[in-house]
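Lab manual, section 2.4: Encoding a predicted structure.

Procedure: take the sequence of the chain (93 residues), apply the prediction step described in section 2.3, and record the output as structure tokens. A sample record is shown.
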Amino acid sequence: MTFSTTITVKTVWGNKRVHYGIVSQQSGDEGGVVKTGLRKIESFDIWAGGKAIHEQAPTVNATFPIVPGDASGIVVILGSGVSTAYWLAVGTV
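Recorded output:
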């Protein structure tokens, strides 16, 4: 069972850093930690990939903003039937 995070894009929007990428899990996994690469996370969004309708949407277990020391990762629960999700994080490095 594997949960993995990949950062696919790092860019700047105004005075904020924006990182986004893909989360993958194998059948039987129930989520894991998304490593955003940001030092402070002010906003985080995640949505399921793959099929059009999922029984359970991905959820995030965090309180924002996430400050240094806690921002290395965000706990995400993808739910049953979700093997791929896309995420976007806004903050500072």
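Check your result against the sample. The mean pLDDT is 81.
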